[in-house]
Amino acid sequence: MSMSRGGRAVVFLLAACLLAACSSGEQAPFPVSQVASSPVAGDAIVEGTIGEASTLIPILASDSASHAVAGQIYNGLVKYDRNLTITGDLAESFEISADGLTITFHLRRGVTWHDGAPFTSRDVLYTYRVIIDPKTPTAYAEDFKQVKSISSPDDFTVRVTYDKPFAPALASWGTNILPAHLLEGQDITKSPLARKPVGTGPYRFKEWIAGQKIVLDANPAYFEGRPYLDRYIYRIIPDTSTMYMEMKAGAIDLMNLTPVQYARQTTSRLFTSRFNKFRYPSSGYLYMGYNLRHPLFGDKRIRQAITAAIDKKELIHGVLFGMGQKAHGPIVPGRWAYNPDVKDIDYNPKHAGELLASAGWKEKNADGILVKDGKPFQFTILTNQGNQQRLLSAQIIQQRLKYVGIDVKIRIVEWATFLKEYIDKGKFEVVMLAWNISQDPDMYDVWHSSKTNAGELNFIGFKNAEVDRLLVEGRGTFDIEKRKQAYFRIQEILAEEQPYTFLYVPDALPVVSARIRGVEPAPAGIGHNQIKWYVPKNEQVY
Amino acid sequence: MYLLKRILMLIPLMLGITLITFTVIHLAPGEPVEMQMAMNPKVGKDARERLRKFYGLDRPLHEQYVTWVGKLARLDLGRSFSPDNRPVLDKIKERLPVTLSLNIIALLLEFGLAIPIGIMAATHRDTWLDKGITVFVFVGFAVPTFWLALLLMYFFGVKLNWLPISGLHSLGSDNFGTLRYLWDLAKHLVMPVMVASFGSLAGLSRYMRSTMLNVIGQDYITTARAKGLSERVVIYKHALRNALLPLITLLGFSIPGLIGGSVIFETIFAIPGMGQLFYQGAMSRDYPVVMGILVIGAFLTLIGNLIADVCYALADPRIRQS
To answer: Among the listed ranges B8-12, B29-33, B253-257, B292-296, which one has the minimum average pLDDT value?
Structure first.
């Protein structure tokens, strides 16, 4: 999970991608001529990105733009396949011992780094050591600190042992493996690899022109076969309107559309003959979180009432032009941990009124605002600056809550101030934010009662003994059925408690030039088979 | 002696500037560490501490200041507090040429257009031409840059397909010959330069018009006319020279502005300039980058003032001797 700051910046993560379960209504269109030709090598793809990568040593990067590029250049030991199940990547296979304490990876033989050096277990050990080295400024050490011991009996076997079974451990080995022969004994923070990476992945680094573009070349020796497209080019265009025009002018082949672009500006016949649009749920949700330390929100009937007073359908329609679906829990629909039987609180202002009345809010003042003990029902929704979707959502909610007699104010604060002055200090009533969620359903950090200190992620102060126990249970076993039980129950409890009002899951809306064939939407999004994308000979332009 | 005094005075001034710069940026809430690591469940508490230590943010403020100024004195702006951890000087170096050349071209265009427009308006005072020019330049002043930019992009880039929409080079421009490469670059610059200069035309041309009118009203112009000189000679030889003087002062003032870039404008045209670097630096609390750019800007302003003062001194003995 990570916090998404820019709603319009749902950056297209290829390696660690999204999920599908094709959403209601529209089917993603396929290129008509897709079956007619057979794949050939050549041509290039230009992807537009609004953010520039910061460093191409992925363990040092914390932004999605860097990880997107690094994902083309490096591999992990494991990866998520098109259906979001974990499979081997640099590891040909892996075994988990019966007690769940040891994972053994059998590495692929014959894999080479882009400079020709062979890939071995030495690289894996180096990557592990540099991540846990206290001198390395990485954000990803936590999962690896759970490792009790690591060994490599030979060049192509790595054995990792844990103190207790830890389910997110397997996925953590999807971390990009770094070349030991270029980094060992060096200061990784000053390594030239940050600007000129050497990996094992499908594309080799060619050039990076600051602020303009990053160019990658196909790796002819890639272990899964050479990608058909000769080059992969990232063009940095910070403005979505500019990017959209570049795409219409044919200078960009792949970008993410905004909902209004998808729904209104890309529907002409001319456009759909030149581009294929795709649509599937993204891996994040927008929510309104209540500060549970605040007396106003201590009573769950109040939180339920607010949810019942909000029309989520209207939000999706008004803010996302219909490009999204209702959220009613912390797991997005389509994942194995998603509980489809959770009963959401439907939009019903009358029911909201009854709930509020039962909590003691019965009388209304002259302005139509509920009053209890002489105090009006009033709170502020706090959200961060620069995100139009959140502002619009807050405004629609403000209107809806007014109908039931709640006076809502909206306050927009710049991100750094927002974190430091409000979230960390617990100085807020209601926040509107979004979570991007990882493929593994572990959500210990967001919901466990031990994570309520300043700077930790359970900043709303949610404490529930049963959820605590289930969170530990869920991450403490590799048995999917047992995990499912734990996470299903957590979703039921959260639906009842409503510590958040879960608002919506926006859709990811990528668009790809029709020139590029072989794009197949899957639960993992469209990036999973990228090395198989190609352009027929007569349509190649670069 | 005068010069030496002026130069010595720069030292305490520069120190004061560094102190204010440092204080202001550290007063802003939030730290670079927060910006990189907050709201990420994979980040433990000691990961933050680790990063703070790595950037030296765990040390007392005055110590941080002394380290920074010490490096600055050796012309080292330090390393960026972003994950790439690159020297700030490198980051500025790769962006400065773009901003500088774009600003110079735009500045030349502004003055090149504003002077004739101003003269025309002055010599045709209160005619339809004058009024038309006034409306035109004020439209340019009032139109939001981003809106104008988007309209131009749509018209010239998408509809007519005459000009590239954004960026500085076409893909594959590395393989072009020199001429073709420059032609490609020029085409990319047309719209940004147009948009950048259009907005400033109003102020400059109005200024030109009023100084021109002022000069035309002077006695020596009347004398020149009385001598029977042609109107062309009166305006362009006698009047213009004197009317240009204040404008040259104005040109001097715009020199420190040459290294600054507009964020909105650079974002829309995807031009990797100083504006974006500064804005991103400020938003992610990348102290060394922000402080570096501020200090360079302040330094250039001081140098600009110094040069102006020296020039005045050269021109006017009264200043030299006081």
So the answer is: B253-257
- Residues with Cβ < 8 Å from A75, sequence gap 6 or more? A89, A90, A176, A177, A199, A200, A201
Q: Which residues from chain B sit within 8 angstroms of residue A423, using beta carbons?
A: 38
Do residues A390 and A404 touch, judged by C-beta distance below 8 A?
no
Burial of residue A269, with CB atoms counted within 10 A of its CB: 0-12 exposed, 13-18 middle, 19 or more buried:
exposed
The answer as to whether A354 is a domain residue is yes
> H or E element: which one contains B137?
helix B128-142
Contact flag A416-B30 (C-beta cutoff 8 Å): yes
Chain centroid, CA B70 distance in Å? 28
Residues near B73 by beta carbon (within 8 Å), at least 6 away in sequence: none
- pLDDT of A17 strictly over 70: no
* Alpha carbon separation from A518 to A40, A81, A223, A514 (Å, rounded): 11, 16, 20, 10
Question: Do B165 and A242 count as a contact with CB atoms less than 8 A apart?
Answer: yes
- Residue B242, pLDDT > 90, answer no
Interchain pair B42, A242: CB under 8 A: no
Q: What angle do CA B44, A293, A451 make, to 5 degrees?
A: 15
Of the candidates A136, A236, A245, the beta carbon closest to that of B154 is on A245
**Cα–Cα distance, B105 to A422 (Å, whole number):** 45
Q: Does A93 touch chain B (CB under 8 A)?
A: no
Among candidate residues A389, A425, A494, the one with its CA nearest the CA of residue A4: A389
pLDDT tens readout for residues B255-284? 777 777 778 888 889 888 888 888 888 888
| This prediction's pTM | 0.83
**Which chain A positions have a beta carbon within 8 Å of B169's beta carbon?**
212
In a domain, A468, yes or no: yes
Please check whether residue A280 is in contact with residue A511, taking contact to mean a CB–CB distance below 8 angstroms: no
- pLDDT given at position B83: 80
- pLDDT value at position B44? 67
Query: Closest Cα of chain B to A444: distance in Å?
Result: 9
At A300, which CATH number? 3.10.105.10
What CA–CA distance (Å, rounded) separates A469 from B38?
Answer: 26
pLDDT at A84 over 80: yes
**How far apart are the C-alpha atoms of A517 and A511, rounded to whole Å?**
13
Size of the A and B interface in Cβ pairs below 8 Å: 154
Average pLDDT, stretch B13-31?
Answer: 87
Q: At what angle do helices B287-315 and B240-253 cross, to 10 degrees?
A: 150
What does the pLDDT look like over A317-335, one tens digit per residue?
Answer: 999 999 999 998 999 888 8
Q: Which residues pair with A254 in a beta bridge?
A: A47, A512
B38 and A251 in contact by Cβ < 8 A? Answer: no
Phi first, then psi, for residue A492 (nearest 5°) are: -60, -45
Say if residue B161 is exposed, middle or buried (CB neighbours under 10 Å; 0-12, 13-18, 19+). exposed
Are the CB atoms for A355 and A405 separated by under 8 Å? no
Residue A187 lies in a domain: no
Residue A438: inside a domain, yes or no? yes
At residue B42, the pLDDT reads 66
- Total domains, chain A: 1
Task: Give me B274's structure tokens.
Answer: 């100083």
Alpha-carbon Rg of chain B, whole angstroms?
A: 25
- Residue A360 to chain B, least CA–CA distance (Å): 36
Mean pLDDT of B203-232: 86
**CB-count exposure of residue A540 (10 Å: 0-12, 13-18, 19+):** middle
Give the domain range for residue A382: 284-507
| Amino acid at site B8 | L
B/e letters for A461-487, b = 16+ CB within 10 Å, e = fewer, are bbebeebbebbebbbbbbeeeebbebb
Q: Which chain B residue lies closest to A417 (C-alpha atoms)?
A: B29
Quote the CA–CA distance of A205 and A217 in Å, as a whole number: 6
Residue A195, chain B, CB below 8 Å: the answer is yes
